[in-house]
Amino acid sequence: MTQTIRRYFAAFNAGDTDTMLDCLSEDVAHHVNEGKIRRGKALFAEFNDHMTRCYREELTDMVIFEAEEGRRAAAEFIVNGTYLVTDEGLPEAKGQTYRLPGGSFFELDEAGLISRVTTYYNLADWVAQVSK
Length: 132
Prior knowledge:
Elements: H1 2-14, H2 17-22, E1 24-31, E2 37-39, H3 41-54, E3 55-67, E4 72-83, E5 97-108, E6 114-121, H4 123-130
Parallel strand pairs: 1-6
Antiparallel strand pairs: 1-2, 3-4, 4-5, 5-6
């Protein structure tokens, strides 16, 4: 099942939303850091489009953990990013770069597709880095 997680993150780093969507179940629950839970592929795609417009990110130093016979997984990584377009309620974007640790937690369904993804990072750390 970690193959699905690796494919998901490779697609993220490539900016390939379609492949990311292929890794998700139709009713995926997307728990966004500091945000609402979005359910379904359409809302995931909408969120991803927004993020792609505002940020360019690459995840490095990835470690993936698997549990419960492949039904749950977690990943720890470093987010290396550039703030491209001002995101509502956040500091003004001026092409600032940032680097911060992050993590994601996953549940996978019987077909091996991601049915829940929860992502965390330290928003205060990010704001401090882009506000310099």
